[in-house]
Design a protein that fits this description.
The protein folds into two domains: about 60 residues, no CATH class; about 240 residues. Helix content is about 65%, strand content about 10%. It contains eleven helices and six strands. Strands 1, 2, 3, 4, 5 and 6 form a six-stranded antiparallel sheet that branches. A hairpin with a 5-residue loop joins strand 5 and strand 6. The chain starts with a helix and ends in a 7-residue tail after the last helix.
Length: about 400
């Protein structure tokens, strides 16, 4: 195993040394940032000092009302001090308490915590202080996990340097570096009781395995399907955590996972006669394209209408109109995804066109949902899709493969 790994390692000594240094520095940065975050998040509030009661005024600009949610947050403020009170959402519009008396304590590090009742317990203060520390340290943990995923990316390029071209290495590392920057600049908020750091970790892992899978597809490698299985599991986890995009989740579970397995078997049976690492590929006929487009349209209308009528509670999406728009976009993306999966199974070049459409739809959903780190993945899709389409087209022209599905 070690000898086989050495056979794939970056052949250029200078590049290999630079990549090794980068890997060590990234791993060191991860451990330092993670240890620092753990130390800060586990701090004790220390000696508490009681504060004089403060009269706070309601600040509706900091509130977000959603009639489909169970509880809504009422925010009161006095200068930089704030107090949040949860009430049932059905009472939100009739709620008329514009002022409140807030009772606060100050921790040893100067953090001021307020409650809507006097005589707060030590446990209440500790819980509230812990929540504040979690919010404060989220950027640190995001930075740590970003460095870890970037280190893994450099490790792939280092230990499998002979497998990839210079362009492929640069593309792979550029996308992952951009994902790292965006993850730090635009940290994810917690949703549905799941910490934002966990959500960001899922996003970064999804980006890493997705672009690796894309790269292997462009190289006509059947091993892309093994990576794709990990991608599907991650995307199901994201849908479950955020409680959205159920068309995509169902398509992934009942279509993509099985098609990945059978596609790996099918591609293994159609190796290129001259290069066993390559799979023979081809293209569609015109009438087949028309039938597929019609099927996508019908799927989008029917599934989108069904999903938009579901009453699903999630605090990730705050507007019913946005939720409806995402339902139809999700239905269309899942339909294009099914077509794409079939194109890949039959080794058809048109799968790259489907990738273009799917990436565009996904990008719109990411913008609407505020998932900015996933936009980096879509940038990777657009650039590598062009690269893959050109490579497959050259292969088809040079091998003069027959048209059609079979």
């Amino acid at each position: 195993m070690i000898n086989k790994l050495k056979g794939h390692t970056e052949p250029n000594k200078t590049v290999r040394i630079l990549e090794t240094i980068a890997l060590i520095l990234l791993l060191a940065g991860f451990f330092i940032a993670f240890a620092g975050g753990m130390r800060k998040s586990g701090a004790s509030p220390g000696q508490l000092t009681s504060l004089e009661p403060v009269q706070m005024v309601r600040d509706e600009s900091q509130e977000e009302y959603d009639e489909d949610s169970k509880f809504c947050e009422i925010v009161y403020a006095s200068g930089e001090d704030t107090l949040s009170v949860d009430i049932p959402c059905e009472e939100y519009e009739e709620y008329s308490e514009n002022t409140i008396t807030a009772y606060g304590v100050e921790t040893e590090d100067g953090t001021r915590i307020f409650f809507d009742h006097p005589d707060t317990t030590t446990a209440e203060v500790a819980d509230s202080y812990r929540e504040i520390l979690v919010d404060r340290t989220m950027p640190t943990f995001n930075f740590a996990i970003s460095l870890l995923i970037l280190a893994v990316s450099v490790g792939v390029i280092l230990f499998f340097g002979k497998v990839f071209t210079t362009y492929e290495k640069c593309w792979f590392l550029t996308i992952m570096a951009l994902a790292t920057v965006v993850a730090v600049l635009f940290p994810e908020e917690s949703a549905n009781g799941v910490n934002g750091v966990i959500i960001m970790l899922l996003y970064l892992l999804d980006t890493f395995f997705n672009i690796l899978c894309e790269l292997l597809i462009s190289k006509q490698s059947r091993y892309n399907f093994l990576v794709s299985v990990v991608v599907e599991i991650l995307e199901i986890a994201i849908c479950v955590v955020l409680m959205y995009r159920f068309a995509t989740m169902a398509t992934t579970l009942f279509f993509w996972l099985p098609i990945d397995i059978v596609s790996f078997i099918n591609w293994s049976k159609h190796k290129d006669e001259e290069e066993e690492e390559l799979t023979a590929v081809r293209r569609l006929k015109g009438y087949q394209e028309v039938l597929i487009i019609a099927g996508i349209f019908v799927w989008t209308v029917v599934v989108g209408y069904f999903l938009s009528g579901l009453d699903i509670q999630t605090d990730f999406i705050q507007s019913k109109s946005v939720e409806t728009a995402i339902a139809y976009l999700d239905a269309c993306a899942s339909a294009v995804g099914v077509a794409n999966g079939l194109f890949i199974f039959f080794r058809l070049r048109e799968q790259w066109i489907a990738w273009y459409v799917c990436a565009a739809l996904e990008a719109v959903i990411n913008v609407i949902s505020g998932q900015y780190v996933l936009l980096v993945l879509k940038l990777g899709y657009f650039t590598n899709t062009t690269y893959g389409y050109i490579k497959w087209s050259r292969y088809i022209r040079s091998h003069k493969e027959s048209k059609g599905l079979f």
